[in-house]
């Protein structure tokens, strides 16, 4: 019995060693990281056997988890502000203001706020009307996209994702906005080498 318990303990230890947690907002998982996760599995060697955890939460919660070693890797649109973090710029993606029908103007639409990080709100203020009050605020691109038609709304979505979705049209009197994407992890993480290997696999479909 003791041999069996020892074997089970060893399996559990190995399992924990092979776990790798990645944290990001809901919209980043929906629009970009889900495809990357698929590529990570496809590129794994048979002997690697990593068990990924895709964790969804707000950025501040994920930064705290990273700091407390409860998270291995954070993908976010903002560079880290703490010295103990390493970071890598993964590329940029383009946001555009989308609605459900062609030839629409901002003034005719209700604004749906999709959260793309605190620093995005600074840009947002200059891109929508100063008196514009969001009829909906969410961190989920899927949810926002599904509500656009019913609410006669518009929201900022990644261009590449919106094109694949179909049925979405850019608002006539709007612009586009480029956003960075960063990978962040602890400098002294024992998974440093693994993280750098994983980041060799393109996170963004379109990197420029």
TrEMBL record:
It comes from the Eukaryota. One of its GO terms (molecular function) is DNA binding. Residues 16-199 form the LysR substrate-binding domain. The keyword Transcription regulation applies. Keywords: DNA-binding, Transcription, Transcription regulation. InterPro entries: LTTR, LysR_subst-bd. Transmembrane segments: none annotated. Pfam families: LysR_substrate (PF03466). This is LysR substrate domain containing protein. The lineage of its organism: Eukaryota, Metazoa, Ecdysozoa, Nematoda, Enoplea.
């Amino acid at each position: 019995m003791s041999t069996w318990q020892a074997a089970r303990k060893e399996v559990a230890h190995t399992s924990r060693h092979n776990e790798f947690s990645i944290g990001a907002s809901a919209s980043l998982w929906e629009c970009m990281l889900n495809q990357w996760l698929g590529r990570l599995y496809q590129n794994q060697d048979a002997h690697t056997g990593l068990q990924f955890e895709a964790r969804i939460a707000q950025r501040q919660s994920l930064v705290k988890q990273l700091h407390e070693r409860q998270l291995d890797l954070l993908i976010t649109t903002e560079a880290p502000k703490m010295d103990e973090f390493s970071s890598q710029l993964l590329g940029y993606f383009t946001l555009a203001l989308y609605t459900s029908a062609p030839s629409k103007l901002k003034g005719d639409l209700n604004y749906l706020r999709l959260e793309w990080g605190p620093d995005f709100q600074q840009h947002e203020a200059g891109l929508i009307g100063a008196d514009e009050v969001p009829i909906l605020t969410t961190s989920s691109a899927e949810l926002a996209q599904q509500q656009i038609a019913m609410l006669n709304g518009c929201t900022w979505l990644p261009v590449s994702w919106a094109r694949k979705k179909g049925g979405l049209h850019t608002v006539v009197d709007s612009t586009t906005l480029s956003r960075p994407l960063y990978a962040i992890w602890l400098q002294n993480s024992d998974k440093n080498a693994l993280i750098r290997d994983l980041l060799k696999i393109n996170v963004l479909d379109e990197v420029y």
